[in-house]
Amino acid sequence: MLKDYYKNFIETTCDENGAITDFKIKCPDNFNFAYDIIDKYAELEPNARALVYTNPKGFERTFTFAQLSEYSTKAANLFTSKGVKYGDTVMLVLKGHYQFWLAMLGLEKIGAIAVPATHMLTPKDYIYRFEQAEIKHIVITGDDPKVAQNAEDADKESGGVLVGKFVVGNTQRDGWIDFDAEIEKQPDFMNRANTNARDMLVLYFTSGTTGYPKMVHHNHRYGLAHTQTAMWLNNRYDGLHLTIADTGWAKAMWGKMYGQFLMGSAVFVYDYDRFNPLDMLSVVSKYKVTSFCAPPTMYRFFIQEDVKSFDLSALEYCCTAGEALNPEVFERWYEFTGHKMMEGFGQTETVIMVSNLPGTEPKPGSMGKPMPLYDINIYDENGEPVPVGEVGEICIKCERGDDGLFGGYHKNDELTDSVWHDGLYHTGDTAWKDEDGYFWYVGRNDDIIKSSGYRIGPFEVESVLMTHPLVLECAVTGAPDPVRGQVVKATVVLVKDAEGSPELVKELQKHVTDNTAPYKYPRIIEFVTELPKTISGKIRRVQIRGEDK
Hints:
Elements: H1 2-5, E1 10-14, E2 20-25, H2 33-44, E3 49-54, E4 60-64, H3 65-81, E5 89-93, H4 99-110, E6 113-116, H5 123-133, E7 135-140, H6 145-157, E8 164-167, E9 177-178, H7 179-183, E10 200-206, E11 214-219, H8 221-233, E12 240-243, H9 251-255, H10 258-263, E13 266-270, H11 277-286, E14 291-294, H12 296-302, E15 317-320, H13 327-337, E16 342-346, E17 352-355, E18 369-370, E19 375-379, E20 392-397, H14 413-419, E21 420-421, E22 424-433, E23 439-444, E24 449-451, E25 454-456, H15 458-465, E26 471-481, E27 485-494, H16 502-515, E28 524-527, H17 541-548
Parallel strand pairs: 3-13, 5-6, 5-7, 7-8, 8-9, 12-13, 12-14, 14-15, 15-16, 27-28
Antiparallel strand pairs: 1-2, 3-4, 10-11, 16-17, 17-18, 19-20, 20-22, 21-22, 22-23, 24-25, 26-27
Helix pairs in contact: 2-3, 3-4, 5-6
């Protein structure tokens, strides 16, 4: 049965209440997700839904597992016919287009390496990625001519490194292969490629707080490890799951591919250009999405709308990740929908690491407890576990490349060794643990504010500010100060029709001092119309700090 097939690849141990206490992956040496899951599911239940796609223009397309198997094979044959080989790096710039799934799985069947990327790259960004990842082929969206033009300009300046250039959307462009037209001409059969579970599967560029983007690579074991992610998301057989994420970012692998398909859940894709909370609530209602995940930022915008006017009766489960969850947002969403948001924590370098699992009671504002796949604790700077209530760095005791953990930063051994040493992977994220074992996020090491000898985590101050009725969202950072070193600064977006004023500054400052330690109050408050964010919805505190230098 498709419903239980994934259990061939994992071992779980549960307590008397059914809660998972241990979780292990059983990964064959030659495991390949496209063959061993997608093609197998096509045999077991060919007509089961795998992918449901729509866009704001009303175009819809649904793929069964049989169709996903067929078209991924066609994609593999198309790529092979145009020179893509085992081990080649292929950039995918496909926004939310359904062709991403065909291309991604097709590359897996060849043993090529996918390099997902955002469509917002400039020619300079492409040039850097072409060189660092040795990109040989590219598959790109055709709905915005500037995207292909930027890639062309970069290729020209790089000396013509691209061997194969594919464009989707039935777009005609000189020198480019029409992916949609050509895939239909390909045979729907192929011999299984000789791939290994430790072969590189995907290479992600992830921007740090300083310097050039890092290259994070995962092997084929990564797909199986996302079984654990799917458990956190409560994905189920015959469900329909929506994670809001562009395919250019690793979150798409978390919530739009591996774990969902493993569980036999269909992936729902809404291919929008600009996030609109009303549109998103409308499609969740119309298509009867059963499980849902979005960054806290997007939930903040949802709760400003009339959520109860939408029929969300099919919705069974809600999760959030990407940044810390403010308790105020948790409570409002629960009030409107009856669903408690189950927060989770992880990185591009990992699968889900800490979460509130189904069947557990979340504590609003806590990211939950360590997942059973990993040995996770909070450590001090000497590599020793810290006591309950003390802030430290979240670390995993582990081996590189195992169980969904990245194999290192590509071509950067020095950076890899800086985060992976003494038997620990150092995440760079800080937190503290309460007496019940729940982790509470404090911030990135780079985000910690050091003011007059105090160490202040931005999240606690943000959470207090978010309880003020006039605050829609905010970002707390450290601003340079000649006396204190740094002072707390709050960059604030107000709700509709509210206006910033010196009086409101004082009111917000008092609100913070009344609800947390007085030394944490923001000495600087700046009102803005919107916060700088990544395409995945994360607040870019690094940009705010950079503007204050």
